[in-house]
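Quick start: load a record and inspect it. Here is Ketol-acid reductoisomerase:
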Amino acid sequence: DNGFTVGTYQELIPEADLVLNLTPDKQHSAVVAEVMPLMKQDACLAYSHGFNIVEEGMKIREDLTVIMVAPKCPGTEVREEYKRGFGVPTLIAVHTENDPRGEGLELAKAYAAGTGGHRAGVLESSFIAEVKSDLMGEQTILCGMLQTGSILCFDKMIEKGIEPGYASKLIQYGWETVTEGLKHGGITNMMDRLSNPAKLRAFYLAEELKDIMRPLYEKHQDDIMTGHFSRTMMEDWANDDANLLKWRAATAETAFENTPNTSAEISEQAFYDNGILMIAMVKAGVELAFETMVAAGIIDESAYYESLHETPLIANTIARKKLYEMNVVISDTAEYGCYLFDHACRPLLADFMANIDTDVIGKTIAGDNT
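Running the structure step on this input writes:
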């Protein structure tokens, strides 16, 4: 109906000027090895993430141009933004070893414009910078911190007698609600939705969280920069994803994932007023991710995209179907890193959470009518 040519990849690829590899990272080597012999002379191969080139060292045929167009959100959100006539900020890069005619950058810009990315902003990067910043963002604030925060906040509310259905709903939709403010004015705008007493409490909680979690964020960045993370994950690939599947199943069994939501309405402001700890976790996580990436040599703009900008887009996935949805729509690489972070962060925050009460999660600060 739309005039597209339909056929098998064996039929279509030999005629294609541009071939997009949008498969999961784990499949890249096998897919590229299968596709590359079919590609015509001087064609272009595009990636949306540079893991295969940077971490696996894939060698591409010399006549082929290799580019990357990496929207800073899950593919589902790229589609939604495109449908509404906009786009998402996008990193583009050219693999310098595969730019035989010097046209890679122009091809990448055209592709990014085709997805609507130019309406939100396109930043020229490199394959290495995109991989290292992308892995760091998704492991920490974007996925790992949201998973850790969801489980810890829910369990604390249940411990303190908050009705389970209310606690579940506050967490599931709370991340999306409070991070929406990041889109329109960053952390300052999100914090400004709180009363002055609540804002002060969120600030001090965030500072305490940053002190506790900074070594963990730095460890994740170090493991990414040295390649330790990638080697560990690829060992799990070779073991049929044994750890990934075990951790995914364990997440599915958490109380938060299995508690139905209350039918009672929660107002937009109530998500802020009753979710002070969640706001503190977002503030701490975004700032730590940004600061850690910049300290490792990643440029400010890339660190921003991989921390503050993308957090609301990941939070949207939790609103759809809790942590299951987040972990399904992000990449297999992101999911693996998310679990590594979560398993280390929850025990790390045990003493901190022991001192938390419902005045910062589940209810409003007593007497706060400001």
